[in-house]
Amino acid sequence: MIQRSRARTRVATAAAVCALAVALAGCGGTTKKDSDNGGPAKTDAKADPGAPLKKGLKLAFLPKQINNPYEKIIDEAGITAAGEFGGKGKEVGPSDASASSQVSYINTLVQQRQDAILIAANDPNAVCGPLKQAMKKDIKVVAYDSDTAPACRQLFINQASSEEIGRSQVQHLAKQLDYKGQIAILSATQNATNQNTWIRFMKDELSKPAYKNMKLVKTVYGDDDDQKSFQETQGLLKAYPKLKGIIAPTTVGIAAAARYISGSSYEGKVVLNGLGTPNQMRKYVKDGTVEQFALWDPKKLGYLGSYAAAALASGQITGAEGEKFKAGKLGEYTVGKNGEVILGPPTVFEKSNIDKYHF
Ligand code: RAM
């Protein structure tokens, strides 16, 4: 806890110093680029859409944490995809999802001269310094799952539209609750870019008149740690005896919350919804603890990330809006605003379809 808040203070101080420097002379250099204004990292290189994918590319996946089953699926699929185009993928990473836990791994990957680093960032800013160093050395940087600040990477592979992910979780839970009652959010870490973006859209959705009888009473953080998520669920239900629903926009959180609720006196009284993997949630859907939850296909996310990194490292694309590349059997994708590439809409899982999915 102390460590985390210190890290945050350091980041905030660095950002403040940088903001002041930009106002005076431009941060980190004399020429002011778009990236200094928060846009994605820029390069002078021109895209060559016809360039073949280079052989022997070295791609390194750096997940939020290595012991998260969801991140594992993404990275394994990305590594398999690298094999398809004659590249070599690997996964390295920390065992916890704290803000600065990925920094030393980035430094090592830079020393190893990987061709691309793919990162699910635990904090949008804490990883920026080393990622900028990587890009200076012509190592391509692709964020996936959880973005960095845009200036610190060339592309962000987003699972689906962040707005759709955020709003739809409120919409689904509201229907289940008949638009009434107290609700809470069980999130991942306090710094996670993806969860924080989704939560912003959840709050905006909840501010609409349709939800006037629903109240978000608390957001708690399970840190994508199974035990902490379990305890936070327990704490929430004790502190708010009238709680009617929980949204857990994290695969680790929703599985731990379901385990706590299943067989407890809360089963059938508190509705749990959010984002989970079918394999982890199957038994809770079957025993009635959870009626529905959503997710995209993490395998496709890893596969797309790998091809996007290869397209960058081969010069087919530079990360500019409108560029197109082919992601193997997933077909063609276009780079959107802010260097974002979107995989596609999430799937809602429930009793009727869950057995069709095995991840
Ligand atoms: C957890 C992680 C990950 C998120 C999924 C939904 O596994 O927090 O970043 O995308 O949940």
From TrEMBL:
InterPro entries per record: Bact_Solute-Bind_Prot2, Peripla_BP_I, RhaS, SBP_2_dom
Region Disordered, residue ranges: 30-49
Superkingdom, natural source: Bacteria
Keywords in alphabetical order: Signal
Domain (Periplasmic binding protein): residue spans on this chain: 60-316
Localization terms from the record: Cell envelope
Keyword check for Disulfide bond: no
PROSITE patterns (alphabetical): PROKAR_LIPOPROTEIN
Main location: other
Stored Pfam families: Peripla_BP_4
Signal peptide coordinates: 1-25
Protein name in the entry: Rhamnose ABC transporter substrate-binding protein
Species this chain originates from: Streptomyces rhizosphaericus
